[in-house]
Amino acid sequence: MTQVESGLDREIAPLRTADPFLVEAPSQAPALTGYFAAVAMTAAATVVALGIDSGMSIPNVSLVFVIPVIIAGVSFGFGASVCSAVLGALAYNFFLTEPRYTLTVNDPANVWAIGLLLFVGLIVSSVAFTSRRRAINAALLTRQATALQAYSRDIGAATDTKAVVSMTGKTLAALFDVPAVVILLSGSDVTSVNSTGGPELQAADLEAARAALVMGTVARAGVYPAAASRFDFWPVTSTAGQSAVIGLAFAPGERPSSSEASVDIIARILGLALDNQRLRAVRGAAAT
Questions:
Q1: Do 131 and 184 have their domain in common?
Q2: 185 within domain boundaries
Q3: Which of 11, 91, 126, 194 is the least crowded, having the fewest Cβ atoms under 10 Å away?
Q4: Alpha-carbon torsion 196, 203, 231, 266, what sign?
Q5: Do you find a cis peptide bond into 26, omega within 30 degrees of 0?
Q6: Does residue 118 contact residue 62 with C-beta atoms inside 8 Å?
């Protein structure tokens, strides 16, 4: 059991640090930090633009303000990028157009220049943010595929049901970076609970798990019959007489759209693994 689980851990754990977009990317830069960074980068761009403008006459010095927009969009998201675009247009107007050190614009050409800078900044914000989201999604899909491959390969070598359940919980928690639980039931009685990264199950959670098993469909947290539960529960089909339910505690509003397919794959593999463990037990009993 230890060798199998350590092998699974080696497949999953490096993925959590190999690419910053995998899990930490959406949360590593809180909104307030992103806005502070946007202000700081725009201020730095203003200093650079003023230095260039004082030393030489360059008609496109306003493009300096596009750089913070790109960095903010890739690193901190759409809001910080738009903030940088607006601040860049204002800074260009205030410091680099006549009359200087005022937001008044005398030359109509400068009005167009400022408007174009803001427009370009907004377009770049959207493109940078979209590119960031695609990178995050691609990295997440890669992580999920690798973890599922490791899970499907190693679970067949598990020596008992406890190892199967433990591996399943670890894989679920690693895939989605949320608390996960695997519940084994005999009829309506809970026989085993394996929780990974979360608090103890409450009565409402267990009732929601039983409801998912009875209905044969996913029971979503906050929705009847799991209105009081913190977990989404998926029933696991097994022909071995051993029922199972797997649960994930997503934060409100943060349930990934790709969760359904990945959890369904794990549920099918878990069902086969439970059947395999039951068959091993029957063969062992017959041999004795």
A1: no
A2: yes
A3: 126
A4: positive
A5: no
A6: no
Rounded-to-integer distance, Cα 91 and Cα 44, Å: 11
Check residue 204 and give its pLDDT: 92
Beta-sheet strand order (sheet of 243-248): 189-196, 180-186, 243-248, 232-236
Backbone angles phi, psi at 30, to 5 degrees: -55, 155
Report, as ranges of residue numbers, the positions in the chain whose pLDDT lies below 50: 1-29
Please report which residue ranges of 104-258 form alpha helices under DSSP H.
Answer: 108-154, 161-176, 203-215
Residue 236 DSSP code: E
Report whether the peptide linkage leading into residue 99 is cis, meaning its omega lies within 30 degrees of zero.
yes
Residue 152 falls inside a structural domain: no
| Residues written for the chain | 288
Q: Please report the pLDDT score of residue 74 as a whole number.
A: 81
Q: Is 109 exposed, middle or buried (0-12, 13-18, 19+ CB in 10 A)?
A: exposed
pLDDT at 229: 92
Q: Which residues contact 108 (CB under 8 A, 6 or more apart)?
A: none
Instruction: Identify which of 202, 166, 165, 200 has the alpha carbon closest to the alpha carbon of residue 184.
Output: 165
